């Protein structure tokens, strides 16, 4: 009788671990069921540190998700598609920037709103973009050019 009770307890623990792993996988990939939004696109020189599922933020608040990344074989730029929550209206002179959460933090997409009275519609392209800056290249510039001032 104790063998079957042990087997039930071990089975329950394995099931709980599987559910916890599944919940972790869903939250880290940005998967959402039924989240409504409208698509936008943007083209960057570099999308280093950004993956599908990365946050899109406006004033530090998550308002969307990166839904696709592809290399444009004609311009050699990284084309990104993103989804912005319905109800969030973005002025059509806004900029979109790849930002970092800190020295060791991850990257995310930041929308800097403009002042236009007109707004992006579904499927529009954000033209004012700034790609990610490599921390390694910045450090190399600082170390290599620090004494030339």
Q: Structural class, please?
A: alpha/beta
Quote the average pLDDT: 84
Low-confidence stretches: none
Beta-strand level of the residues, as a percent range? 25-35%
Q: Provide the spatial order of strands within the biggest beta sheet.
A: 7-1-4-3-2-6-5-8
Total strand segments: 8
Sheet with most strands = 8 strands, mixed
Radius of gyration over all CA atoms, rounded: 21 Å
Number of helices: 2
Helix content: 25-40%
> How would the global form be characterised?
extended
- N-to-C span: 80 Å
User: What letter string, H or E per element, gives the SSE order?
Assistant: HEEEEEEEEH
Number of domains: 2
Keywords:
single chain, 149 residues, alpha/beta, 2 domains, eight-stranded mixed sheet, 26% helix, extended
């Amino acid at each position: 009788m104790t063998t079957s009770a042990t087997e039930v307890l071990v089975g329950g623990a394995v099931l709980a671990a599987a559910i916890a792993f599944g919940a972790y996988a869903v939250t880290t990939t940005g998967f959402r069921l039924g989240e409504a939004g409208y698509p936008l696109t943007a083209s960057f020189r570099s999308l280093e540190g950004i993956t599908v599922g990365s946050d899109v933020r406006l004033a530090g608040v998550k308002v969307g998700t990166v839904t696709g990344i592809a290399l444009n074989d004609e311009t050699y730029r990284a084309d990104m598609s993103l989804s912005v929550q319905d109800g969030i209206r973005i002025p059509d002179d806004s900029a979109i920037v790849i930002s970092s959460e800190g020295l060791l933090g991850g990257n995310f997409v930041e929308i800097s709103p403009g002042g236009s009275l007109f707004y992006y519609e579904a499927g529009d392209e954000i033209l004012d973009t700034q790609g990610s800056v490599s921390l390694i290249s910045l450090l190399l510039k600082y170390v290599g050019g620090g004494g030339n001032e």
